[in-house]
Amino acid sequence: MRLVYRYPSECPSSNALSPRRGRGYCVSGWSLTRTGATVGGAGGLGGATVNAGVKGVWLADLPWTVVKARLDAGATAVLPVGAASKEHGPHLPMNTDCLQAEWLARRLAGHRQVLIWPTVAYGHYPAFVAYPGSCSLSRETFRAMAREILEGLLRAGAARVLVVNTGLSTIPPLAEAAARLSRPDAVTLAHVYQGDRFRSAVQEIEEQPHGSHADEIETSIMLAIAPGQVDMAKAEPWAGRAFAAGPFRPADPGSPNYSPSGIYGDPTLASREKGERLAQAMLQDLLAMLP
User: Which residues in the chain belong to E strands, given as ranges?
Assistant: First the structure.
């Protein structure tokens, strides 16, 4: 038997809605499983095989001596970036971005020699601060924090760093932070919602007229990777018009960005099948960035 972490998508549906706090704010706690056994009753993309062909590891679980050995052996440092306190409508959890970032990092570990750093769960997300629980750092603060974290990875001995970023407003400050590093060429910024394979899949799948947040696309991905965290009974369309640049407005019907639910798009069109294709496209985009 082996003690392992079980993620929300890897837990029985009965407790998937009540995750205990853990690494990256997204995990559901410890459990015993047989070495090499599959965990996760939901099947599909949610299940994961424990200790079966996994090449990467999570830094938080290791002593520093093993971290050094992994880096000396050429492991790529992976830094997931995804909000854990950002509204995603009434049907998705606040940690939707975090769950996506950690799911992708976990899948990378099955394909490449990677060392996964703890998730950066706070960032620059100014569009959503009017919704209770949504937190955002200033652009300057997030840029400085990201730069110091990345510099720490390089100082630790990482020859290569891959940032797995599930946000959009985080793209400019991450680029600014990377440009100011001592070794900017060692860092690759992977903005998963901008990958070529992912965008191609969206063009073929998307049915909603407008959307970009807690919508058909994002809800489909969550149905694929963490179905127990999605409440489709509370999903509602909000895609009648295109939003303007700027923050969402939950209480201003006169605003072009008015959304009382925090949704922009039509999550009722989401499906697990769409999400599986989208999530795999994201993963393939990331794998193409790694040796």
Answer: 2-5, 30-33, 38-39, 48-49, 57-58, 76-81, 114-116, 161-165, 187-191
